[in-house]
Amino acid sequence: MRAIWLALPVLGLMASAPAQAQINPFGDASKIKLSNGDFKVLDEATQKLLSNPDLKPGTQESWTNPETKSTGSLTVKSQLYRKGFACVAVGYQSMARGRPPNRTGELTWCKTPDGWKIL
Q1: How far is 7 from 4, CA to CA, in rounded Å?
Q2: Which of 72, 77, 71, 101 is nearest to 91 (CA)?
Q3: pLDDT tens digit string along 56-90?
Q4: 3-state DSSP call for residue 101?
Q5: In terms of Cα–Cα distance, which of 83, 71, 75 is closest to 118?
Q6: What are the residues whose beta carbons fall under 8 Å from the beta carbon of 25, sequence distance 6 or more?
Q7: For residues 3 and 18, what is the distance between their CA atoms, to the nearest angstrom?
């Protein structure tokens, strides 16, 4: 759980100024943005995905925030090692407020002794 909360600042950057677009896996932040509530639901979906005991490429998790109509999905793209840790590349897709365009991106999560972290 702690690792997820450590990742929230990174996820928060996904909704910040356009200058941050190179680290925003959801594309141009000047368009319709995900809300704080959306990020909470997205965080819960990420936690659920990473806790799957059979985590492998193709494993998916979907999320929906009924309050904002935002939706998305997460998919494990690949397994890899980084800095000596077992990791998974997770592809993200979201549609803020139920309106196109779909935004996509990828983050690498690694299982550390302190839990899952973005490395």
Answers
A1: 5
A2: 77
A3: 999 999 999 999 999 999 999 999 999 999 999 99
A4: coil
A5: 83
A6: 14, 92, 103, 104, 105, 106, 107
A7: 26
